[in-house]
Design brief:
Elements (H helix, E strand, L loop, with lengths): L2 H9 L15 H29 L13 H13 L1 H12 L3 H27 L9 H33 L4 H34 L1
């Protein structure tokens, strides 16, 4: 084999490349980012629908009281604090730290379950039915969209937790943990403007 062929063979050798990567070097990261862009657009359109309907009404809310603040505030605190275990799970995953991933995934699941339970109290204190008026429909739409994302990511976190305790495991599962946390940050960030619209939009406009 001549020198040119040897050089070409070395140039095509990918055996030294890492088998797993995190962050923007991962295709999963870009896929998750794309999903967040699409879903963020859906959230934005729902918020725009709220203000469009509001602009066509003399009184807002329509024939109902604004949502009670207590459970919305409690859930917002839970959701914001839940970012910490998500960060720790991501860091443990990127270090391939099995015990750390197991612990922080369990904590993340507990936060997700707690949030979902409190969300039930939120729905009960919106003070409006989904079919009672345009106001009720758009408020339930906003809450329903966000709840769907919470439940979906919670189920994903539960599946990951089971896999990390039961196996089988490979390096790609640690990438899944990192991307799961990345998506959770989006869910938390999306809630802040929705919370302001649902709970304060009916009080300040």
């Amino acid at each position: 084999m001549n020198e040119r062929a040897v050089a070409r063979s070395r140039a095509l050798d990918v055996s030294g490349l890492p088998t797993i990567v995190f962050g923007h070097r991962s295709l999963m990261w870009w896929g998750t980012l794309g999903v967040m862009a699409i879903e963020g657009t859906v959230f934005a359109l729902a918020v725009m629908a709220y203000f469009y309907l509001r602009s066509h009404q003399e009184t807002w809310p329509i024939s109902s009281n604004p949502p009670d603040l207590l459970w919305g505030i409690v859930n917002t605190v839970i959701l914001v604090v839940s970012v910490f275990p998500a960060i720790m799970a991501q860091k443990a995953g990127e270090k391939l730290n099995l015990r750390g991933v197991q612990f922080w995934l369990v904590v993340s699941v507990l936060f997700g379950v707690g949030f979902t339970i409190v969300r039930g109290f939120e729905f009960a204190t919106l003070n409006v039915r989904w079919d009672s008026s345009a106001y009720g429909s758009v408020v339930w739409l906003l809450m329903g969209l966000h709840t769907t994302h919470i439940v979906t990511d919670l189920l994903d976190t539960i599946v990951l937790t089971v896999l990390f305790f039961k196996g089988p495991l490979d390096g790609k599962r640690y990438v899944d943990v990192s991307e799961n946390s990345f998506y959770w940050y989006f869910v938390v960030a999306a809630w802040i403007p929705i919370w302001l619209v649902v709970y304060w939009g009916a009080r300040t406009l």
